[in-house]
Amino acid sequence: MPSIVIIYHSASGTTAQLAEAIFAGAQELATPSIYRISGAEIIAGRFIDEAIWAQLDQADAIIFGSPTYMGGPSAQFKAFADASGERWSQRTWANKIAAGFTIGTLANSDQSSTLLYFSVLASQHGMLWCGLDIPGGYDEQGRNRLGTQLGIAAQSSDGQVNPIDLMTAHYLGKRVAQIALKMSHPSSKDTP
Ligand SMILES: Cc1cc2nc3c(=O)[nH]c(=O)nc-3n(C[C@H](O)[C@H](O)[C@H](O)COP(=O)(O)O)c2cc1C
């Protein structure tokens, strides 16, 4: 089974809810693991945790997550992203699959900028970006209700994530797992 690492920051727990939904979706076809950046492992602005770096280096896919803060990823996530620069020069993450998720309090309050940043980060590493293939407005279950194809752009209200966004997140987890499986076993069939 392919290995997937979900690495994210969450302060008040809504991004964490999305991460858990992605984890559950990925678990159907892969072996996911999940890591929440707490801030304690950031020293002098730099993310330091050798165990998680080793896990990320071994993974077939990495899924990035952060709340949208001031139209971009949180400082805690950025500390992690900046520290990944060593991997950039070594091409350690090249050709791994990448995807991303974020959340904000309004329906459209620059969550796309955070996803765009994640996709640029993935491209800097030579990773293969996996967006959403659910056409917003044409899904029977209403998933991708905010019409963001780049990844999960979710909305929180009073600490709760919109339940449709959680379903969309579950779907993305499974989709990444399916693609990772396909890349490791090219003859494997798609499952709906
Ligand atoms: C400093 C700060 C900046 C924020 N900026 C945005 C923003 O630009 N767009 C948005 O939709 N929500 C913004 N929010 C709201 C958070 O993204 C939202 O509450 C999110 O659900 C928090 O995620 P968490 O529960 O994982 O910490 C901001 C919140 C904080 C604390």
Automatic annotation (TrEMBL):
<protein>
    <recommendedName>
        <fullName>Flavoprotein WrbA</fullName>
    </recommendedName>
</protein>
<dbReference type="InterPro" id="IPR029039">
    <property type="entry name" value="Flavoprotein-like_sf"/>
</dbReference>
<dbReference type="InterPro" id="IPR001226">
    <property type="entry name" value="Flavodoxin_CS"/>
</dbReference>
<keyword id="KW-0288">FMN</keyword>
<feature type="domain" description="Flavodoxin-like">
    <location>
        <begin position="4"/>
        <end position="176"/>
    </location>
</feature>
<keyword id="KW-0285">Flavoprotein</keyword>
<dbReference type="InterPro" id="IPR008254">
    <property type="entry name" value="Flavodoxin/NO_synth"/>
</dbReference>
<dbReference type="Pfam" id="PF03358">
    <property type="entry name" value="FMN_red"/>
</dbReference>
<dbReference type="InterPro" id="IPR005025">
    <property type="entry name" value="FMN_Rdtase-like_dom"/>
</dbReference>
